[in-house]
Amino acid sequence: MNTVLLILFITVGISGMFYGVDTGVFVGLGLVPWQVMRLRISRKLNLAAIFVTGIAGLIYFGLSGNWKILILFIVIELYNYWGYTQTRVN
Known about the structure:
Layout: H1 2-19, H2 22-39, H3 43-64, H4 67-86
Helix pairs in contact: 1-2, 2-3, 2-4, 3-4
């Protein structure tokens, strides 16, 4: 189920970028790192997911000029990083 949700959130995030829907980008890119963490594959992959989604969101919201959403997205990414530090990989 985690893999299905990961694919769903990636699709929502990319579709939101393509169609210009801020909510889709925010939710999709914000939840991708949590689904990667739940797969428990590797810590490097978790950190890469946080980094890639963070950069993509920063670029999207920065270029669109939605500064309030950008600040909220940064907070979400910091929360994702906190989750990364608390997650143990088997």
